[in-house]
Amino acid sequence: MKRLIIATTNPGKVVEIRSALGEVPGWTLNSLPAGIPSIEETGETFLANAILKAEHYSKFVDDLTLADDSGLSVAALDGRPGVHSARYAADPPARIERILREMKSAPAGRRDAVFYCALALAEAGRIIWTVQGDVAGVIALAPSGSSGFGYDPVFVLPELNRTMADLSAEDKNRLSARGKALEQLRKFLLVH
Predict the structure, then answer these.
(1) What one-character DSSP code corresponds to residue 161?
(2) For residue 152, which of 162, 2, 160 has the smallest C-alpha distance?
(3) What is the residue-averaged pLDDT of the chain?
(4) How crowded is the C-beta side of 127, counted as CA atoms within 13 Å?
(5) Which residues, 6 or more positions from 92, have their beta carbon under 8 angstroms from its beta carbon?
(6) What 3-state class would DSSP assign to 68?
(7) What are the residues facing 73 on neighbouring strands?
């Protein structure tokens, strides 16, 4: 049985990745072992950060290592928070509050946003595969929903008129940027 190490300390991401991938024949999904030093995310793109993390963490384990970088880009905020999504404020509630405060005067037609997710697989410090996914939406006027994590309560899918946090885990895995990228990862793992 081959092992895939999920290189994140974010428990929400681990749960979502495991849920989205489901059972992958021949593979076990494992969390990052404790004690591995972190790496600063200095990339200018989500993919660059995913690659940095995958290369780094794969040097500390003997298994295939998956790193993810994802975030929100809001058109009216000139693409912010972008690659700084996880560091846009001290914690998830503060990040949501900041986005809503900065978007307070944005009219309905100027609330467009895109969620991005980049995945990178590495082995022994060498990248062997990458993929990117995205999903377009709009920033809500107020948080809604209790599922998901991060910016999910304020990211509305216009075709459903629901936030990501209003969706079931199954629907989110099917529609989200991470879900789309993980579907490509699943296909990769099934043939390797």
Answers:
(1) T
(2) 162
(3) 95
(4) 16
(5) 149, 150, 151
(6) strand
(7) 81, 114
DSSP letter at 38?
P
Specify the pLDDT at position 184: 96
63 Cβ neighbours under 8 A, 6+ residues apart: 2, 3, 4, 5, 30, 123
How does pLDDT run across 61-98, given as a tens digit for each residue?
999 999 999 999 999 999 999 999 999 999 999 999 99
Structure tokens at 152: 């999910």
**Which listed residue (63, 68, 69, 171) is catalytic?**
69
CA distances from residue 137 to 4, 84, 110, 116 in whole angstroms, order as listed: 31, 19, 11, 11
69 catalytic? Reply is: yes
Tokens at 94, concatenated = 């503060």
pLDDT beyond 80 at 128 = yes
Tell me which amino acid residue 88 is. Answer: Y
Q: What is the DSSP letter of 167?
A: S
pLDDT for 62 equals 95
Instruction: Report pLDDT for 125.
Output: 97
> What value does the mean pLDDT take over residues 105-122?
96
